[in-house]
Amino acid sequence: MNASNPDDPAGDVVGSTTPDAHESCREFLQAATVSRRRVLAGLAGGIGLGVAHSVFGGVFRQAVFGATAGTNVVVVISLRGGVDGMSVVVPHGDPAYETLRKSIAVPSGTLLAADNMFGLHPRLEPLLPCWQANRMAAVHATGLAVPNRSHFSAMEEVEDADPGSSVRRGWINRAIGLDGDSFPAEAVQFGSTIVPTAMTGSAPVLATQSMQDLVLAGANPKWDDATWQARRRTQLDTIWARGGGALGSAARSALATVDQLAPTARQTYTPHNGATYPTDWRGRDLGEALANTAQLIRADVGTEVVAIDYGSWDMHTGLGTLDWGDMQSMLTGFASALSAFLTDVADLGDRVTVVTISEFGRRAAVNGGGGLDHGWGNMMLLAGGGVKGGQYYGTWPGLDPSSLVDGDLAVTTDYRNVLGEVVVSRLNRSVAGVFPGLSYDPLGIMAAL
Amino acid sequence: MSAVLAPAAGATVRPYRRTRVPSESARHLMNRMAWGFSPTTFEQLRHDGGGTAWFHRQLDPASIPDPRMRAVDSWWPDRMLGANQKWQHVFAGEKSAWEYAVDLANWTLLRRTRSTRQLQEVMTDFWSNHFHVPAIHDLAWCYRNQYDAMLRRMALGRFDDLLVAASLHPSMRLYLSNFESTKDAPNENQGRELLELHTVGRDAGYTEDMVKDSARILTGYTVAVWRDWRASYDASTHATGRVQVLGFTHPNAEHDGRKVTEQYLRYLAHHPATARTVATKLALRFVSDAPSPQLINHLAKRFRASGTDIAVTLRALVSHPEFAAARGAKVRNPIEDFIATVRVLGVEAREPTGSGGQFARSQIWMCQGQYPFQWPRPDGLPQHNAAWASASRILNSLDMHYSLSGGWMGEQGSVRYRSRKSWLPADRLRFDAFVDHLCRVLLGRGSSDRLVTAACQATGCRRGEMVDDQHQLVSWMMPRLLTAILDTPEHLTR
Questions:
Q1: Which of A275, B107, B397, B448 is the S-S candidate for A343 at Cβ 3.0 to 4.6 Å?
Q2: What is the pTM of this model?
Q3: Do residue A238 and residue B457 have CB atoms under 8 angstroms apart?
Q4: ipTM, 2 decimals?
Q5: Do the chains contact at B357 and A43, CB–CB below 8 Å?
Q6: pLDDT, tens digit, for every residue of B347-375?
Q7: Angle, to 10 degrees, between the axis of helix A19-34 and the axis of helix A281-299?
């Protein structure tokens, strides 16, 4: 195999000083980045040839979990880097909007599902049917109660969601910890093996690049017969059954996860209802993660929360217009992947709900680089089961100088009120348990359970 | 399950003493201040006269001959091409930016694996995280090799010099948007991260106005993007006028703001809060996840008193009792795990030729999704154990151990694995003695009862079974035995 990338659109990048060159370079880099798994798969495929594996169809033991089938699932998509909410859900009715945004203002006439004040970015077009079917909604001017313009500490704060407490435990971990079950697949992150703050805590969780990674080397039914599988498991149990601190817990969790999910992970997933996940660079990573999510939901192992990070929204420069730039391309990827997912799970009724989150919004005014620096107020999108969609929620604080806070959109809805509604209505958890200390004031976005 | 044997009652290990192991403190030094224990580095350490002597020599990398690096450097001859030349190759469709980034990562992995200047490579990585610039950033990539060379050159020097060099480097200007920050439209990106990540930290109490002044001070340092990519200072875009950031005030009246910028950066480098930032990061990386306030104070004090001397601070760290007490307390991240595994298994990448799947060019795919220099945010790779202790990460590590133990990575001729027979230290010996020998080679320590039990279970061998080069263990079960020793807390921690 070749270490250089088989998917590289070599030669696509042409010499130019226009924004298009910038754009194609980014495309180029990203295309290369996301196809690494294919290369890895190629490498792994090649190595098996010299292996003295015996291949028998050994049946691996499968643990029985007390999971409830048919649970509701909340999919949390983190738009990391601080998405500019005003480019996604555009406040075109605010008289200051176009002045502040100058060249990067989204033209009013191009907006989708527009009312007098708001409209959706035209690149969300694949999601329009969902909005029109009243299954998708937006909340504006939401975020942390107090501004925090540091990526890292804002992310911690948003995901920990328990101000004043020094316990390192995220809101998703608290949510899944409130039921009687305890197994890693209750809360799963796809796309990275690093557990995000929202999922950190005492309840076991699973963070994985993909479903396909959930295989135990040396005990793979594809290569290893029942004897070797048993030997491998016994050996690892001897080493990892006790102690080992965080690493020991992870290893035990790994073995439990393999028991529970390896049969699913080994299957090739075919999307349902004619759904087609995007294959171009903009939506591929998110599409893969969401296809994995659909596969996991259909495995019905009791998963209640799936977390996915999508994109790099930290657009200090090159945010762009409708024709070029990072915003339109990221939104294209987002909308195409999410719309495929919603189609894929459409036959599951109202079981699946998607909500977006981001650490902060961005400044009201465009900066010198045609981008936006870190700000405060933001938007959230909700789609799927239980969402009273087709409308914009929240209280618009306005963009006139006296309404801005240090140049930023003010927050009028604590984001925990939005997540609180989702947690109550979809997972039947208490808001006080998941968001301690919040004076709960729901906007009425979600239908009662 | 009949093949799985329970350990005999009262069974003990059978030390294979002819294979030498380092003292615990020497092994600890190699695990922290080198890229993990390895037989080769152990040999170097013995030659230097023990752990302490080795460490002090490592602080002066120029004094250590490193002949094998010349070959490794020559394998990627276009690494150090200028930014504009690299762009020309990209525009001509001859090579992609992504490939340049992959080259840097693979070259770096080989340096870490092989260099005799282990501490320099460790500290280069440390600063690469502290002053993180992703090698795949769509603009910054073109200067990333030069940036890397600067970090390596200054990795054991003085932090104030390093801060100035890193902050003003074209790669950093491109990554954190400073290249287009001007007096008329300042971009706060670098001004903020300079304070938050690179120096004083958020708790230092700077205001939003100070962030803006921080950005204004940095205006003028630009790069001719989409032209010839040359870095320059453009005084006409520098924001003049009084600035205040924490205790730093300056009239900033001149159009040429280079002097005020350097004064500002040196002020930040020597700020007590910066000393705490650096001390805390060093302690997190080299000591434990929960360093004591006393240790942080001690390091911060030495750092400031020495005029931000990195080598002095490292000496203070290594000689502190908390360092010695923290053996095995850190989880290896996937990159560290890969490097340590290659080092102890004696996997030797060969010069890549042609376009095949050479091992040297495929190394990054074995780092389980953590490609060197590709962390997506400016804060660098996480250093706390929890980040690397997840279920899926363990499965990925086990997969990598098994693949390298089997010699299944990389196409024929691109890599040399140890022959299976070469693992045998004698013509014939007991299985438990063989396991002990392997533990000494792979882990730098003798076996434990638990490890021997696991080795029996993994292979179906008995403790007292005699092993020679005709034994099926050697002829085809070695991958299972090697990986059984690597799939342990002893190898996955440092």
A1: A275
A2: 0.83
A3: yes
A4: 0.91
A5: yes
A6: 999 998 876 668 999 999 899 878 899 88
A7: 30
